[in-house]
């Protein structure tokens, strides 16, 4: 009986070692139809300023496989629902921030998630400013990148994150009836 048990143990050990060696020596195959995952990049921190050129918060942008994650922390704002968009130029000259240009729109679409001809790559979902004037939210911008290419936020003139005084209606071109620009952060390398 002891010889049989020893034989079974040796046989099992041989099978396990052989299976491990086969897996270790195997060359992984990548299906050409599968997307290669994007590795996370080093987070990019940008300051957000208001119309009086005072810092009111920051945004942290990180490349993920889903798109660019925007972690937004702001204080001292008027409560309510606000539009937030990515604009085409990394210039935040107060008080109106028109220096940031139009929405980031390399695909030459119209504005708005509900617009049949839209949407801009820089269109983002509305944010909610709490009753105490703060925002602490994460947004995924799926149609942009911090890498290279047509949809790069870090092209030669950068881009800007702009908050508007009102909510975006998600359909009216060019900016969703979102009102004046009230905060801005330049996105540069």
Features:
189 residues, alpha+beta, Immunoglobulin-like, seven-stranded antiparallel beta sheet, two-stranded antiparallel ribbon, 1 helix, disordered N terminus
Question: How would you sum up this structure, described in words?
Answer:
It contains one helix and nine strands. The protein has one helix spanning 2-25; strands at residues 44-50, 55-64, 67-74, 80-82, 84-87, 127-129, 135-141, 159-164, 181-187. The strands form two sheets. It has a seven-stranded antiparallel beta sheet, with no helix packed on it. Strands 4-6 form a two-stranded antiparallel sheet. Strand 2 (55-64) and strand 3 (67-74) form a beta hairpin. The longest helix is centred in the N-terminal third of the chain and has 24 residues, at 2-25. It starts with a helix and ends with a strand. The model is unreliable at 1-40 (pLDDT under 50).
What name goes with the CATH superfamily?
A: Superoxide dismutase, copper/zinc binding domain
Can you give the helix content as a percent range? 10-25%
CATH architecture: Sandwich
Number of domains: 1
Query: Strands of the largest sheet, in order across it?
Result: 5-8-9-1-2-3-7
- Share of β-strand residues: 25-35%
Supply Rg: 25 Å
| Mean pLDDT over all positions | 79
- CATH topology label: Immunoglobulin-like
- How does the helix and strand content classify structurally? alpha+beta
| Topology order in helix (H) and strand (E) letters | HEEEEEEEEE
User: Would you count the extended β strands for me?
Assistant: 9
Uncertain segments of ≥5 residues (pLDDT<50)? 1-40
CATH level 1 class label = Mainly Beta
């Amino acid at each position: 009986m002891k010889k049989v048990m020893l034989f079974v143990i040796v046989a099992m050990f041989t099978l396990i070692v052989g299976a491990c060696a086969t897996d270790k020596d195997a060359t992984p195959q990548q299906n050409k139809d599968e997307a290669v995952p994007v590795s996370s990049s080093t987070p990019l921190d940008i300051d957000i300023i208001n119309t009086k050129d005072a810092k009111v918060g920051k945004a942290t942008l990180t490349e993920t496989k889903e798109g660019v994650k925007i972690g937004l922390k702001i204080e001292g704002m008027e409560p309510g629902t606000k539009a937030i968009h990515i604009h085409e130029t990394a210039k935040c000259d107060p008080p109106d921030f028109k220096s940031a240009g139009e929405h980031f729109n390399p695909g030459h679409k119209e504005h708005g998630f509900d617009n049949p001809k839209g949407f801009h790559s820089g269109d983002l979902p509305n944010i909610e400013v709490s009753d105490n004037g703060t925002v602490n939210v994460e947004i995924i911008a799926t149609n942009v990148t911090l890498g290279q290419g047509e949809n790069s936020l870090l092209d030669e003139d950068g881009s800007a994150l702009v908050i508007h005084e009102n909510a975006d209606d998600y359909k009216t071109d060019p900016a969703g009836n979102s009102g004046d620009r009230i905060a801005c952060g330049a996105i540069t390398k």
